[in-house]
Amino acid sequence: MTDNLADQGGAGRVADEAAIQAALDASYRGWKAGDADAMVAVYTEDASAIVPGSLRGSRAVIRDSMAAAFAGRLKDTSTSNKQLSIRFLGRDAAIVVTESAILFGGATEAPEADKVNATWVLEKRDGRWLIAAFHSSPVLVPEPAAAPEPVPAP
Asked: In this structure, are residues 131 and 44 in contact, taking their beta carbons and an 8 Å threshold?
C-alpha cells in the first residue's frame, strides 16, 4: 500500500519509493551477510533503533550491537520483510511500516508468534535516502478461543 502526496508529483514519488526500497534492501542484505557495517551503511549517523528492551542511539551503537549479535545468537540468520505501507512526510521524510521477522537456520518463513511490526523512518540527506529511525514491536497473535463450557444435560 502506498500513500503518494499529489502535491509532490507522482513521478518523483515513484523514484523516491524505489530509492527507499533500495536503502531497506541494502540493510537487509547486510543482515543476511552478517555484516554490521554493510547493514548500517544506509543509516544516518544519528540514527536510533528501538527493539524490545533496548534503545540504540546512534549508527555506531547500532553497528556495535549488531556486530556482537551476528557473532552470537544472530549468526547465519536472515530476515523476512513485507512492506505494509509507505507515507511521505513532506519532500525529505518517509515512514515505512513492515511486518518483519528474524529467520533462523535457513528458514524461509517465520511462525506468526515471531513476527514484529516495524516502523522505519527515512530521511533524504544530500539526495540520498537513509534510515533515521527503526522501531519494532511484536505482532499480537490472537489467543485461540476457549472451547465453550459443556452444558449439563437436563
From this structure: yes
| Helix/strand/coil for 104 | coil
Distant-in-sequence, close-in-space partners of 20: CB < 8 Å, separation ≥ 6: 86, 94, 96, 122, 129
| Distances, alpha carbon 47 to alpha carbons 7, 19, 101, in Å | 28, 18, 21
What is the set of domains in the chain, with CATH numbers? 2-138 (3.10.450.50)
For 53-74, write each residue's pLDDT tens digit.
899 999 999 999 999 999 999 9
Q: Contact at 8 Å (CB) between 13 and 129?
A: no
pTM of the model: 0.83
The C-alpha cell at 93 is: 521524510
* Phi-psi group of 84: left, alpha or beta (phi > 0 → left; psi -120 to 50 → alpha; rest → beta): alpha
